[in-house]
């Protein structure tokens, strides 16, 4: 039987994704999202960072660090899987960039559905037949992300007052659900850290931090957009990677490695977000000292 805390962690994770997607719908207009998608130069930088530079980083890590086969497979899967939903928790805290963040996350998620299976066939050897459960994945996406997102956009379009009224509660619920999911799943992921060894943990941490740096450098001069790209680039699509790893990779360390990546991604992005929030508040309200 599945442990109670594991079931609870999954429940709060699903609640977080559902409410965060709904919040994006009521807070960001469809028109603004389309405008962002039409910015070709910006989208090119986003794609360059996520489908070229991060995979190059992954290749460098598996080449430079002696790692078990399962850990190497997990790194390559994650490197080719942009668009992780964990980014929702962080991008919704960046004022004035919600439409941009929503468009970027949507594009990256769609890209991962095509790019990640290709990585399986190219980088994972051993004659594995990649029977990826696309039907189940798309069904989950429909009710978990697209449905609340579409509902939120409809509410914002046809009842702006209602959208403004529910936006704050949705954001609070998603934040609370995310925090509970992290706490409840921490013990499972700590067990995973012991399962892949110190070299595997170091490699996963390097992938997280390296992806954050790549995202930051690929942004424009605007700090808000740099933060969005840093968050979205470092939050890889671990859920898709787990589904693929459990379906096609017999080495259990691959699944453990992906869990470790999730464990490391959350605090790294939390500290990054907290730093910028504190910095912005200090800029708005600088410390004053009494005159001598």
From TrEMBL:
Protein name stated in the entry: Sodium Bile acid symporter family protein
Keyword Nucleotidyltransferase: no
Topology versus the membrane: Multi-pass membrane protein
One matching Pfam family: SBF
One cellular-component annotation, GO: membrane
Gene3D superfamilies listed in its UniProt record: 1.20.1530.20
Principal subcellular localization: membrane
Family annotation (InterPro entries): BilAc:Na_symport/Acr3, Bilac:Na_transpt, Na+/solute_symporter_sf
